[in-house]
Design a protein that fits this description.
Elements: E1 5-8, H1 17-32, E2 37-40, H2 56-79, E3 85-88, E4 105-109, H3 113-118, H4 130-143, E5 149-151, H5 154-163, E6 172-174, H6 188-197, H7 202-205, E7 208-213, H8 222-231, E8 238-243, H9 248-256, E9 263-267, H10 271-280, E10 283-286, H11 295-302, E11 307-310, H12 315-319, E12 324-326, H13 331-341, H14 344-357, H15 363-375
Parallel strand pairs: 1-2, 1-3, 3-4, 4-5, 5-6, 7-8, 7-10, 8-9, 10-11, 11-12
Helix pairs in contact: 1-15, 6-10, 8-13
Length: 378
């Protein structure tokens, strides 16, 4: 075994919470296996000069920290680090690979959506600016040089292989994500109390469908509205959106479909509230056009909440036989799937099979695969 494992985490001002949780999960898993672990993050110097490094001039200040200063620091640190192994936690940091020892370095590829979007693949639903295209091509060029890649889904692996002219290197492999936070079934009294405490008592007295995610076009949040409109008098519940605030287009569609009084918005819920929202929902609806993995599908299943998801990969790979799938371009098909889900025998079957399905994503399984990956020499 190596004397230490170094995890390369993301730039803190970018506030990528899911990647932060993923790095923490790897750290805890490696330490439980008896490894010594350090987490290295890009230094923040110029990023402190901006309110945000996600857009505007702050993004470019962040680029100086990430792509100019930090590679220099990596060269210095690795030159005196000894016989350590390195794992880059996020494929968007693939350019760092050139500054790390190739045979002792691995990387996780969470998706290639932005990369494929920059290359003109419309099914990625990730448009790129001129600068974004340059950045994503640079990321891809470095990513394809990696000898050890963990792709979080078979879809991501296949797309990565396609981007490499149909060839995958021997140590590229699929390692499904484990849970990066705890989710479990709650008694009605428990989840209802949390909703009341957070001023969402309305959701404890009226049935609702639930979606969590960003407002990105690929999340296809409008499908929930269109599905409910198709259901018409067959269902009279509420629609709950959690995550980023509803954008202008979604609000306009609400008005057009006359659903304003049936929509509840929960902006950036904490974990306790999110778990309660999942538990209380009649169904979790996930109509995404594109994903790298799709954590919310198994999070809902862990709460015994029936899942209605897009039939596009990787959703069936993740949800398995424990979800109902429908065409994300067809509101009528989603309405059909929802009515099927409401049947008592179907619902009970999904609740039971969902708890069975999530066993595939136990963190111990993921960590065993990562341990093998980082310790395997080329």
């Amino acid at each position: 075994m190596r004397n230490k494992t170094i995890l390369i985490d993301n730039y803190v001002p970018d506030k990528q919470e899911s990647m932060k949780r993923f790095a923490s999960m790897l750290k805890e898993g490696f330490e439980e296996a008896g490894l010594k672990v350090d987490v290295w993050k890009p230094i923040v110097i110029f990023g402190y000069l901006a309110k945000s490094t996600v857009s505007g001039y702050g993004k470019w200040l962040g680029y100086i920290d990430k792509w100019v200063l930090y590679p220099i620091l990596l060269l210095i640190k690795t030159s005196v680090s000894g016989n350590q192994v390195y794992h880059v936690c996020d494929h968007s940091n693939a350019p760092y690979l050139k500054f790390l020892p190739k045979k002792r370095t691995s990387i996780t590829c969470h998706d290639v959506l932005a990369i494929r979007g920059a290359l003109g693949h419309k099914d990625a639903y990730c448009d790129a600016s001129a600068a974004g295209k340059v950045l994503q091509n640079w990321i891809l060029k470095n990513l394809l040089k990696a000898s050890k890649i963990a792709a979080v889904s078979l879809l991501t692996y296949d797309q990565l292989k396609e981007l490499n002219n149909g060839v995958a290197k021997p140590q590229w492999q699929v390692i499904h994500n484990g849970f990066n936070a705890g989710f479990k079934p709650l008694a009605r009294e428990a989840w209802a109390a949390t909703l009341v405490k957070n001023n969402y008592e309305k959701l404890t007295t009226t049935k609702y469908i639930f979606h969590v995610g960003s407002g990105l076009p690929r999340k296809n949040r409008q499908m929930l509205l269109e599905m409910v409109a198709k259901l018409d008098t067959k269902w009279d519940g509420l629609i709950c959106f959690a995550g980023q605030p509803m954008d202008h287009d979604l609000l306009a569609l609400c008005s057009k479909l006359k659903l304003n009084d049936r929509v509840v918005e929960v902006v950036n819920p904490n974990h306790e509230l999110l778990e309660a929202l999942l538990n209380g929902a009649e169904a979790f609806v996930f109509p995404s056009f594109s994903e790298g993995f799709g954590w919310p599908v198994i999070e809902a299943q862990a709460c015994k909440t029936p899942v209605l998801a897009s039939n596009l990969r990787p959703m069936p790979e993740v949800g398995g036989a424990a979800a109902i799938y429908a065409d994300p371009y067809d509101p009528a098909d989603f309405a059909r799937g929802f009515l099927e889900l409401k049947q008592p025998e179907v619902r009970l079957g999904l609740e039971t099979s969902g708890l069975e399905n999530i066993k595939r994503f136990e963190t111990r399984i993921m960590m065993a695969a990562y341990l093998k990956l980082i310790e395997t020499n080329n």
